[in-house]
Amino acid sequence: MFRPCRFLVVAVLIATPAAAVAQTGYGSLDPPIPTGPPLPPPPAEIHRPTWLEDGPQIVPVSATTSGLMTIADTPWPVTHSGSACTFDSPEPAPSWLMLEPTSIQVLQGAYFNWRLGPRIPTFNYLPLSVRHGWNLGNPMGPDAPVGGNWEFLSDLTGAAITSNYGHWFAGLSFFLRYNWAPPGSVVIPYGQVGAGAILNDAYRDPIQRAIGQELEFYLHAEVGLKCMIAPNLSFDIEGGLQHISNGGVANRNYGVNAFGGSVGFTYYFPWGTR
Which residue among 10, 202, 235, 263 is least packed, with the fewest CB closer than 10 Å? Predict the structure, then answer.
């Protein structure tokens, strides 16, 4: 009765090592070796300025880009690459021929007539000017002898007259400016000339001979300095000579030659792409 049990136990003991050996032999096979080129490493994390992180890769026209890209990669002014409201030709015109709005400048000044030319009664005024500027680039390209760019501006000025005759004048002028600045400059000197016309009420005083009619010419010759305080904002100082006269159209035309200065700010639109 016990012999069949003994045979069963012996059979189980013999079968167990054989099964273990069979499993060990199957598991000892080496895993397959992958073929093909190695996988590239993951890209490194790049920290960019907020004006790039929060939107498309748009570079402010006067932003300082040290550490972001080299000077060769960042022409100043930034060239235009097309927009939804323009039709780009297969061969676009040079960037310095493309009028693109680039800045708004606001200046508050004080000008005082000087003893330059005919003697006139004192004529002092406080002009407030708002200018819209278009960056024209540099037709001589990156090899220009003087680094910088040309700029065309339209100017709307209103002034309070603080002297004895007249109370106000207002009018429109146009400027051609050259900014002496290489790419990424923090301090940007400039020079400009301008011409326009103004309406005034000083001509109503019949005693003075400086201003003879309601519509007078308004001429400018000035220099300035822009200091970048943010990627899209500069603090500006400007000064020079302004001339008011009617060119001999009226009987009274001694004119006004005034020296003075202005301070203000310029905001630069972040147009253009890398």
Answer: 10
